[in-house]
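Researcher: Please predict.
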Amino acid sequence: MSRVWHHEERSDEAISILGMEDCLALLAMTWSHDLRDAVGGMRKPVVVLGLGNPLMGDEGIGVYLVERLMESADEYPSVDFIDAGTGGLSILHPIEDRRKAIIIDCAFMDEQAGTIRRFLPDEVRSTKALAHQSLHEADLMRIIAMARQLGQAPDEVVILGIQPERVEPGQGLSRTLSDRIDEYISMIRRELGT
């Protein structure tokens, strides 16, 4: 049976956050993931999610960085690296019940292009640091709230926001972001404790 039903007292809260249609989609998705977990075993304690759309220039930075980290995934035996695309409900299952979730995304922060900043979800909510800046922030904050309501939120969630230079149709990162890839990878490695 789905873990959603183990938290019956929170069902009304979940529906008020997501709405009935999203809750039904989540329920169907959770059942399929529960079956996969039962067959495939336990997930790793840490997950790194890259959000973004690589067909929109710098908006794909999160996906690009996760792909780069996947190239050396054998260095991180306790970490799952996931290309989460443009987010939505599909990010709930990968973050639930983790020790730590690191989420990488393009974020409009009124900073110089290429700037990377570290946020915690409560900082985003309280200071509105990413209130209208992150292209996926509303979905992301909603999903984290949902995971908390269900008692399945990661122990720690870190959001790494990178100020884009160019968000428009077209593949590839701007030179400004491309030139700082090693810096971004180093910061993610520090978050991973390596």
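Model: The beta strands are 46-51, 79-85, 100-106, 116-119, 156-162.
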